[in-house]
Amino acid sequence: MQYLSVLIFGLPVEFLVLSFITILCALYVVTNKNPIHSVLALIMTFFSISAHYIILNAQFLAIVNLIVYAGAIMVLFLFVLMLLNLNKDSEPQVKMGWQVAATIAAGLLLVVLAASLHKSSEYVSRNPVEGVGLVKNLGKYLFSEFLVPFELSGILFLAAMVGAVFLGKRKTDDESTEMEETA
Q1: 89 and 160 both lie in a single domain
Q2: Residue 69 class from Cβ within 10 Å (0-12 exposed, 13-18 middle, 19+ buried)?
Q3: In angstroms, what is the C-alpha Rg of the chain?
Q4: Which of 30, 53, 164, 177 is the most buried (most CB within 10 A)?
């Protein structure tokens, strides 16, 4: 698919739009006072990062990013926030000097990123190796070159699941009374 047009620094329009959305969502995460809204904006940030991966033809990384970060870790963040029951009284007060320093540091980081994108814009818009991030090619590689380590890691995960079930199994009343009698 050909890119429609090229804008700033010779980058594709899709990349620039997604980058703008990612930066806006990330800024909303940092500047918002409500932690639940911040977590939801972080989920949107992860979705836009996954869209970046799709543009770069790395579908496997996009799906893993959605499953691991936007799925599992964000659910964990939401549960922790709900359990902590944060309110404004427990929020520490931040002095104005730290906010000014953080703004200056973020501005300098933006300048460095813009300079680095200016130098490397031609590498972002073209993919030197076709099909590198495709799931089909990853599967071929895993099941041909690394079949034994892949199977061994599957056995290791199975053993870890069995161990977690065994350790998490609750003792019944009969087992606990038997253990007390023998002790």
Answers
A1: no
A2: middle
A3: 24
A4: 53
Inside any domain, residue 127: yes
Q: At what angle do helices 135-144 and 147-168 cross, to 10 degrees?
A: 90
Confidence tier at 24 by pLDDT (50, 70, 90)? very high
Q: What is the CATH number of the domain that holds 29?
A: 1.20.120.1200
Q: Residue 99 class from Cβ within 10 Å (0-12 exposed, 13-18 middle, 19+ buried)?
A: exposed
Same domain, 25 and 73: yes
**Nearest Cα to Cα of residue 36 among 79, 2, 94:** 79
Q: Which residue has the higher pLDDT, 80 or 22?
A: 22
Which pLDDT value is given to residue 3?
A: 45
Domain that holds residue 156: 146-183
Question: Whose CA is closest to 42, among 79, 81, 88, 73?
Answer: 73
Question: Could you read off the pLDDT of 160-175 as tens digits, one per residue?
Answer: 888 888 887 766 555 6
How large is the average pLDDT for residues 72-82?
A: 78
Q: Where are the alpha helices (DSSP H) in 56-172?
A: 59-64, 74-84, 96-119, 121-125, 135-144, 147-168
Residue 102 domain-assigned (yes or no): yes
